[in-house]
Amino acid sequence: MLTPLQVHSFLITNLAVGDFLMGGYLMIIAVVDSYYRGNFILNDQFGRKSVLCKAFSPLSPASSAYWP
Questions:
Q1: List of residues 6+ apart from 29 with CB closer than 8 A
Q2: Mapping DSSP to helix (H, G, I), strand (E, B) and coil, where does residue 67 land?
Q3: What are the pLDDT digits (tens) for 31-63?
Q4: Considering the domain boundaries, does residue 56 fall inside one?
């Protein structure tokens, strides 16, 4: 049986991991945004099919999902 302190620690750790993942995801988006500034629409399909986008796209849902 888990004590309330163990449950609280698990939930805080869960939140911290989610925040860390979202921060990394947003940093990647910021770097790509600054790289394609002004001509993103010309490179839209290339960017969406890139290895970087495919590799890091699971970070957004993973950082906002509830992890029981």
A1: none
A2: coil
A3: 888 887 878 777 777 777 888 778 877 877 777
A4: yes
